[in-house]
């Protein structure tokens, strides 16, 4: 389940960059030929309070469209996701677990979702873990992305995605299924106690807008998939940069991506600065 927390915040680069010391989740992008500024906002995909701050609402007012990691407003998104949830080459959870461990995970999944594990046996363990996220909260889950979508719709603005569903699901094929399964098993063994503790700490840092401390905390994680930061974060960040450049030149835009994508040497902030843009914290 720890790997799910990586997805929630975007996996953190292994380097903390001293040139990015500001505590902020909202960043203004200007210069390098942009006629109007765009904004970069670090989100968290599940929370107890998805209320947007006044400065984020001001950024929405100052821009003309919203780009998230995925086009979550696309009515075909769920259909596309369902088509990419299964493991390749006939791999199943049954084949990845001993009989004893399978029973443990089966009981765990049934207690959290009410579904028998056989219905999910071919699903990528990473995505099964995503179904369990609300169980970590002591409240009704809310989504910051949904709040951004709702605000954009009120302004009659379009919502788009920086990457396709297929591109994002490919990430979960590039990470060994066995490692994904080991993390899900660990969550079952302690009934998500460690997941909940890590999530609460990260939310504390997120709410305080302390990107570098959030990075350091994520760096200390012992999850099995931590070595795959190239797939989870770096490659995606680098793929986004030319898209962000093109989009921002065409129209002032608010880009909302997982907060962990912002910081670090290979984070979106530094990558944009290296391309000549001025990226400054909005206080």
From TrEMBL:
Keyword Translocase: no
Protein's UniProt name: TraB/GumN family protein
Keyword Zinc attributed: no
InterPro entries in the cross-refs: TIKI1/2-like (IPR040230), TraB/PrgY/GumN_fam (IPR002816)
Keyword terms, alphabetized: Glycoprotein, Hydrolase, Membrane, Metal-binding, Metalloprotease, Protease, Signal, Transmembrane, Transmembrane helix
Cofactor(s) this protein cannot do without: Co(2+); Mn(2+)
Coiled coil: none
Pfam families linked to this entry: TraB_PrgY_gumN
N-terminal signal peptide: 1-18
């Amino acid at each position: 389940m720890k790997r799910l927390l990586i997805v929630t915040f975007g996996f953190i680069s292994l380097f903390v960059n001293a040139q990015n010391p500001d505590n902020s989740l909202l960043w203004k992008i200007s210069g390098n030929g942009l006629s109007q500024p765009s904004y970069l906002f670090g989100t968290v995909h599940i929370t107890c309070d998805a209320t947007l701050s006044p400065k984020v609402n001001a950024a929405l007012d100052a821009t003309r469209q919203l780009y998230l990691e995925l086009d979550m407003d696309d009515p075909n998104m769920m259909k596309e996701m369902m088509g990419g949830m299964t493991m390749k080459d006939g791999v199943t959870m049954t084949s990845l677990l001993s009989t004893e461990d399978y029973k443990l995970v089966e009981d765990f999944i049934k207690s959290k979702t009410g579904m028998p594990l056989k219905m999910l046996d071919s699903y990528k363990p990473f995505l099964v873990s995503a179904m369990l996220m609300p169980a970590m909260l002591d409240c009704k889950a809310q989504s910051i992305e949904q709040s951004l979508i709702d605000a954009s719709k009120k302004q009659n603005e379009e919502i788009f995605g920086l990457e396709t569903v297929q591109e994002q699901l490919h990430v979960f094929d590039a990470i060994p299924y066995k490692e994904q399964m080991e993390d899900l098993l660990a969550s079952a063994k302690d009934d998500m106690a460690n997941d909940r503790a890590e999530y609460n700490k990260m939310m504390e840092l997120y709410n305080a807008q302390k990107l570098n401390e959030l990075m350091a905390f994520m760096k200390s994680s012992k999850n099995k998939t931590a070595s795959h930061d190239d797939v989870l974060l770096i490659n995606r960040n680098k793929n986004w940069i030319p898209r962000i450049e093109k989009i921002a030149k065409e129209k002032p835009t608010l880009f909302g991506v997982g907060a962990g994508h912002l910081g670090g040497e290979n984070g979106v902030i530094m990558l944009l600065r290296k391309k000549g843009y001025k990226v400054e914290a909005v206080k």
